[in-house]
From TrEMBL:
Descriptive protein name: Nuclear transport factor 2 family protein
Domain SnoaL-like, residue spans: 12-130
UniProt source species: Rhodococcus opacus (Nocardia opaca)
InterPro entries listed in its UniProt record: NTF2-like_dom_sf, SnoaL-like
Amino acid sequence: MTIRGRGTIGDDRIAIEEVLYRYASSVDSAQMHQLHDVLHPDLQAQYGNGELVEGADAVITWMTDFTKTCEWQHHMLNVYRIDIEGDKATALVYHNSFEKFAGADDVCFLIARYHNELVRHEGTWKISKLVFEIVWGEKRPADNGYIATVGGRGTKIPGWP
C-alpha cells in the first residue's frame, strides 16, 4: 500500500492520519511486515523509558519480539494535532491500548501519547521519529466468563490473529 500526499494541506493531513492509524492496525493485526509502508528506513523510536531503537527493520523486529506471545491487541488512537511544513510534519496522537498475552490472567491497559515526526519519503509520508510517552497503565483481571455470556470472541478474520 502506498499512502501519498502531495496536494493541499488537507490532503497531506489525511495521508498522515492514514499513516498513523495504519501503524496501529498493523500492530493489532500482527502484520508487522506492513509497518514498512509507514516507517521511514532511518526511523528513531523510543517506547516508554526503553532504549532508543534505530531503523525501521530494528523497530519491526523489536515490535515482533515484544508481541510474540500477544493473543490480541486493541489500539484506539486520536490524532490531536498535525503541523505540516513542506515535506515535514509533526503529530501528537493520544493512545489507549489493551493487550492480552498468552499465559496471563490479566489484560494490560495503557494510556499514552505518541509524539511523531514524519517526512515525505519518495512521495509517501513516513514516520521518521516516534516517541511513545506512557502516561498510565494497569493490569486488569480478564473476565472470560463475561465473554462467554456475550457469545465469545467471535469468528477469526482471515489474515488476522
